[in-house]
Please model this.
Amino acid sequence: MAAKILVVEDDLLNRDLICKVLRKEGHQVVEACDGAIALEILQVLAFDLVITDFVMPKLNGIEFVEHLHSLQPRIPIIFVTGFLSVISGKTILDDVAEVLAKPFELDVLRSTVHRLLDSTPYSAP
Model:
C-alpha cells in the first residue's frame, strides 16, 4: 500500500537513506530537517505516517509529536533514535509511537512501516 509519509530527521545521511528506502517501496515521501519545518509542512499537508528523530534542533521529537497530535491526533508515528533503547522508548512512548533504535536494519524499518499502515484506519486526505 503506497502511503504519504513525512520523514523528520536532522542528520542528512540518515534522512536520505530512510527516504530512499521508502520511495523504493512506492511511498510518497516529504522530508524535513527539523521539527519546526515539519510543523510548517503539516499546516498544509496531511500524512498517513510520520517517521521522526528523537533528538533534533529547534523542537525535539516529543515536542514535535505534541504539536503533531494537535493537528492529526491518530497518525501513526515511528521514532528513530540513538538515544533511547527500544525498551525504555516503549516505556516512555507507550501507545504514542513505535521506536527504532539507531542503527536499525532497513528490513525492520520496512516491516514497521507496513505493519503500522496496515493496522491504522487513518488515511491522509
